[in-house]
Amino acid sequence: MEVSTIANKKLTEFTLKDVIERKITFTETNTIYDKKDFEDYNAGNLAALDEMLGDIKESNEEEFVKKYLEIMKVISKQFEKEEVTDTREVEKLSGYNNAIVDIMKCINPYYEYDVED
What keywords does the record list, in alphabetical order (predicted)? Predict the structure, then answer.
């Protein structure tokens, strides 16, 4: 996906799909930091973004939000209970969770702060 393709759109045509695709492209191609240092984090990040990209094609907003709020809750509990201790898995899960939070914030900024019922 090329940024120039999206840049020609009117902002009223800009979608959540575009945001996710840009985040994927940035993660895969950026040269701002050494990717080796963030390999596991980026793997988790890309896994979540790919999953969400598929889900936005199939889900309505309510289904999408419900699914990803539940995932955020599960991950939060795993971190609280220290269920994941392997450093690489923690990094991967952090990247996965943070990608979800980033996209959920685009839907409603409230989701950054509240994942409880």
Answer: Plasmid
42-75: pLDDT as tens digits: 999 999 999 999 999 999 999 999 999 999 999 9
Residue 117 lies in a domain: no
Could you tell me which residue, 35 or 111, shows the higher pLDDT?
111
The structure tokens listed for 56 are: 């936005």
> Which residues form the domain of 87?
3-112
